[in-house]
């Protein structure tokens, strides 16, 4: 039973990338909210962190949650985090998106301001961890700072759980912070590339349900659970395709699922023109790839 990429997979994946309607799918992605701040790296890295933290549920709800946040903070992310904590709490009182509440975001604002005061930027905080322990070390340093040092104020109920780390919680794919790192580091469209001190080759795949489904069915992993080991395995497979920028394919793999381009089932009308059909387990399994 074949369950690994075909020899032709790199060309097929590149063809999928080249023909992908990025602009169509960007309108359906939370990144479109962050791109409005792309002119200012300080605003972009703060907007990205808040938006990634809110990236739970469907994109319409996420975009609504980001719009409501921006209304409350006057659209000024970098300025907002520098305000006194009482103003953070007042601006975000009663705010809610799914299980994420305004009191949690108010503490996040305070911790972001502290990170920027100590390191100069959130990106430098991440880079300091990266230099010590690779990408997982970067996420660990970032998450650890946002959660607060051991013994520090624990914060509102559920706050710490918003920021998992691959070192402390290897069962988590740490999808939201991994996605945040992609937005900040990659310089290729549609990402922002505002953390210039981190190489795109260091990134790991933000493993949501859509990416995991297609990665599994294209043979990039045999793992059926979304753990950090699966993140590493899928990233290694993509690194074999593009060692310098393995995560350039994330947006395409993710939105192939979100957009409905991939029905996640054998459907000849849709799968017929799919350029990765020769690699797709649903078709290889039954010898129907030709
Ligand atoms: S062949 Fe069909 S099910 Fe497989 S990846 Fe392509 S669109 Fe999805």
Essential attributes:
15 helices, single chain, 53% helix, two-stranded antiparallel ribbon, 290 residues, binds iron/sulfur cluster, mainly alpha
Give a quick precis of the structure.
The protein is 53% helix and 1% strand. It has helices at 9-18, 22-26, 31-35, 41-53, 59-73, 77-81, 85-92, 102-119, 122-147, 175-185, 209-217, 228-239, 250-258, 268-271, 281-284; strands at 96-97, 100-101. A two-stranded antiparallel sheet has the order 1-2.
Question: Could you please describe the fold and organization of this structure?
Answer:
The protein contains 15 helices and two strands. The chain is an all-alpha fold. It folds into two domains: 1-26 and 204-290, Endonuclease Iii, domain 2, CATH 1.10.1670; 36-201. Strands 1-2 form a two-stranded antiparallel sheet. A hairpin with a 2-residue loop joins strand 1 (96-97) and strand 2 (100-101). The radius of gyration is 19 Å and the shape is globular. Iron/sulfur cluster binds next to helix 11, helix 14 and helix 15. Iron/sulfur cluster (SF4) is lined by residues 214, 217, 262-264, 270-271, 274, 276-277, 280, 282-283.
